[in-house]
From TrEMBL:
<dbReference type="InterPro" id="IPR002933">
    <property type="entry name" value="Peptidase_M20"/>
</dbReference>
<dbReference type="InterPro" id="IPR017439">
    <property type="entry name" value="Amidohydrolase"/>
</dbReference>
<dbReference type="InterPro" id="IPR036264">
    <property type="entry name" value="Bact_exopeptidase_dim_dom"/>
</dbReference>
<keyword id="KW-0732">Signal</keyword>
<dbReference type="Pfam" id="PF07687">
    <property type="entry name" value="M20_dimer"/>
</dbReference>
<dbReference type="Pfam" id="PF01546">
    <property type="entry name" value="Peptidase_M20"/>
</dbReference>
<keyword id="KW-0378">Hydrolase</keyword>
<feature type="domain" description="Peptidase M20 dimerisation">
    <location>
        <begin position="227"/>
        <end position="327"/>
    </location>
</feature>
<feature type="signal peptide">
    <location>
        <begin position="1"/>
        <end position="23"/>
    </location>
</feature>
<dbReference type="InterPro" id="IPR011650">
    <property type="entry name" value="Peptidase_M20_dimer"/>
</dbReference>
<protein>
    <submittedName>
        <fullName>Amidohydrolase</fullName>
    </submittedName>
</protein>
Amino acid sequence: MKFKKLFIISMAILNCTCFTVFAQDVNLGIKKLLPEIHKAVDKDAKRVHEIFKDIHQHPELGFMEFRTAGIVAKELRELGFEVKTEIGITGVVGILKNGDGPTFMFRGDMDALPIKEETGLSYASQEKVYNLDGVEVPVSHMCGHDAHTAWTIALAKSMVRLKDKWSGTLVIVAQPAEEPIEGAIAMINDGMYTRHSVPKPDYYLTFHSGPFSVGTVVLTGGRLNTGSQHIDVKFHGSGGHGSSPHHATDPIIMAGMAIVQYQTIVSRMADPTETSVLTVGMVQAGATYNVIPTEANLKLKLHYPTIEAGEKMINGIKRISDNTAKTYGITSKEMMPEISIKGYAPPVVNSEEWIKQIRTVLSESEAADKIINDERVTEGVAVHDLEIPGSDDAFVLIEGMEAVKGAYIGIGTANADLVAAARSEGKEFPFYAHEPNYIVDLEGITYGTKVATIIALDALGK
């Protein structure tokens, strides 16, 4: 997940303390509970920090998170949760029923990235693994999913300690494979709500770490980011000698021409007032100089504002691919390009009502140093008109559940001194997601846990 929108907002108003109070019912009991919340979270903070460092030092790629999933399952079982494992290969769900009331689901993703870490941390990853394609790659948590996983465990611990303060059902989800945007749909396809009997949520919360100061919460009502899909395109040809292209049907030429034409899908078929992106992230064909290969493979990344816009982009890819193949002599159905969808994420659309409630509760309880929100206009630009050209498959888990209140929230996890130093040097941030020096401050783990606990208690409070 790329927090470009949130980062733009934070740069504009990071130095402000933005507490917006709304005329609605507020759970004033949360403020009275703060001492107990602090005590409950702080009591487990050292243990959670050690878990976080262990996960950070032993990262795992998507659908390979067996060790991480085992840690989550063990911790949840010890807390008394009913634990379900191997949902969507490595997904873990913990269920804690605590009387009558709504169901509150908190989701954290577990997977790391094929990036060589350069943080210099004492617990930095040195891992190298063979990915699912059989290629050896370095692995590290340069997007903060280790923090997300730690938050799932820490929230479970704090809510168990505070069981007498809430009523309902708490569901903890440790999701695999967010980076390839395949993990959430894998859990759904594996029957998370059917075969595995996981309760459907009334409230659904997920966090993402961000390189803004610890103590910062980023709240955005309505649509937060784009939907996304990963598309594989395979062009077929007949192959031949490089000196005699007239005896072959060249798939590399087809792929090259299609790549150029794909760009017209955004520039000429998509609404220019909306955010749409089509990136060709991989081109793979051939093995040597003088052989025309029999196939060429492309990997495409799509971002789109609505499901309908995404369907339009995919139809455009199919038409351009087929027509390009026909132009270069492909006539049989068996030789037409193959289009495969490998990953999917719908746009994240936060509940306007619940985001306002969360903003109010955090403000009234003075639980946040800074609340960056979409109710302000900065330099003449309405913040809610900005949109992240990135994606996260989190809301696949509640797609089609119209009554669910969903919230995807940014949590500052960068050391304040590093942020200040970067600002003094004219930089936006000290580091950025997916960069090799991305660092989650340990205090950000504790702070995020307290925010999650406050939100959960507000939703489930007696």
